[in-house]
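Tokens as discussed.
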């Protein structure tokens, strides 16, 4: 199933360890699921490791990473190894 909200719910329920998408998503597609993950003690952030903030002027997120608190560093490292560095 391709629903990011469903995948976030699986993480929040402890039925999945992580989920991520590097495809842009609108905040209204992920806000509720992200709240569930965070309420359960997990983490949710954008691919650059910045905090997920909703209700921003630009509602399009560059992607999303979520998982249990013990997997945060490993997931960020894995994703960052896939993303080419930005040129300034």
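Sequence:
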């Amino acid at each position: 199933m391709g629903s990011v909200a469903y995948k976030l719910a699986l993480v929040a329920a402890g039925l999945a360890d992580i989920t991520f998408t590097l495809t842009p998503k609108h905040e209204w597609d992920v806000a509720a699921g992200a709240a569930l993950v965070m309420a359960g003690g997990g983490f949710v952030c954008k691919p650059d490791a910045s905090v997920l903030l909703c209700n921003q002027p630009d509602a399009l997120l560059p992607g999303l990473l979520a998982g249990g608190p013990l997997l945060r560093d490993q997931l960020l490292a894995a994703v960052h190894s896939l993303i080419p560095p930005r040129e300034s």
